[in-house]
Amino acid sequence: MRKLVLLSFVIVASLQFCGAQSLDKMQWFNEPEQWEIKDKSLSMQVTPQSDYWRISHYGFTVDDAPFYYATYGGEFEVKVKITGDYKQRFDQAGLMLRINHENYIKFVDGKYNLSAVVTHKTSDWSVITLDKAIPYVWIKAVRRLDAVEIFYSFDDKEYTLMRNAWLQDNIPVQVGFMAACPDGKGFNVTFEHFKVKHLPDQRRLEWLKKNAE
């Protein structure tokens, strides 16, 4: 069966724009036993038998995989390069935006698939099939108003839209790296070139334009 790498974008509660790219200032939810920050990159040995999923199709709920994040408010663009040594079919690594355990988005890169899981009380899963295995992938997400656009790239130059998903606006969000190994013994993954860019609030810009002196 095809191996998957889940790039998680989880919608979480509370963000501050002080640059999540300062990796040493971020924090763990479900910290793995082995991880390291070196040369502005994060590497980890992913916890075995861990995942993020709620209810639908499979009938179970799990919320126990490693997630390294910072909290941001407002609108922003985030991207990261992900390189994973995936072993099993559901091995996954990526970006996650998370509001809480019932509301999150994770964007997934796998050996033969790119996919996104959007969770609002229950999870759904969309998949893009690749014609060959890829050594790494860039994932980018843009949060504007009440939506998140998710893009992928193989060179950090040309990005392709893979999904547009609803995400509650005007609420802080946890933004960061997630990785999971639902049915394996763990694997190594590295996250590099993580960057969060503040975007001016779109509604405020429109108000300023209409009320210009």
Explain what the structure shows:
The chain has one helix spanning 202-210; strands spanning 11-12, 27-29, 34-38, 41-45, 52-54, 61-63, 67-72, 75-84, 92-100, 103-109, 113-120, 122-129, 137-144, 147-153, 160-166, 173-180, 188-199. With 213 residues, the chain is mainly beta. A seven-stranded antiparallel sheet has the order 3-4-17-8-13-14-15, with no helix packed on it. A five-stranded mixed sheet has the order 1-9-10-11-12, with no helix packed on it. A three-stranded antiparallel sheet has the order 2-7-16, with no helix packed on it. The radius of gyration is 16 Å and the shape is globular. The model is unreliable at 1-20 (pLDDT under 50).
What's the structural blueprint in terms of helices and strands?
Layout: E1 11-12, E2 27-29, E3 34-38, E4 41-45, E5 52-54, E6 61-63, E7 67-72, E8 75-84, E9 92-100, E10 103-109, E11 113-120, E12 122-129, E13 137-144, E14 147-153, E15 160-166, E16 173-180, E17 188-199, H1 202-210
Parallel strand pairs: 1-9
Antiparallel strand pairs: 2-7, 3-4, 4-17, 5-6, 7-16, 8-13, 8-17, 9-10, 10-11, 11-12, 13-14, 14-15
Number of helices: 1
| Unreliably modeled segments | 1-20
Quaternary arrangement of the chains shown?
single chain
The helix/strand series, from N terminus to C terminus, equals EEEEEEEEEEEEEEEEEH
Q: How many runs of DSSP E, i.e. beta strands?
A: 17
Main pleated-sheet profile:
7 strands, antiparallel
The computed structural class is mainly beta
Strand content: over 45%
Question: What fraction, in percent, of the residue positions are helical?
Answer: under 10%
Q: How far apart, in Å, are the first and last alpha carbons?
A: 62 Å
Report the average pLDDT across residues. Answer: 89
User: Any idea what the radius of gyration is?
Assistant: 16 Å
The main sheet orders its strands as 3-4-17-8-13-14-15
What overall form do the CA principal axes indicate? globular
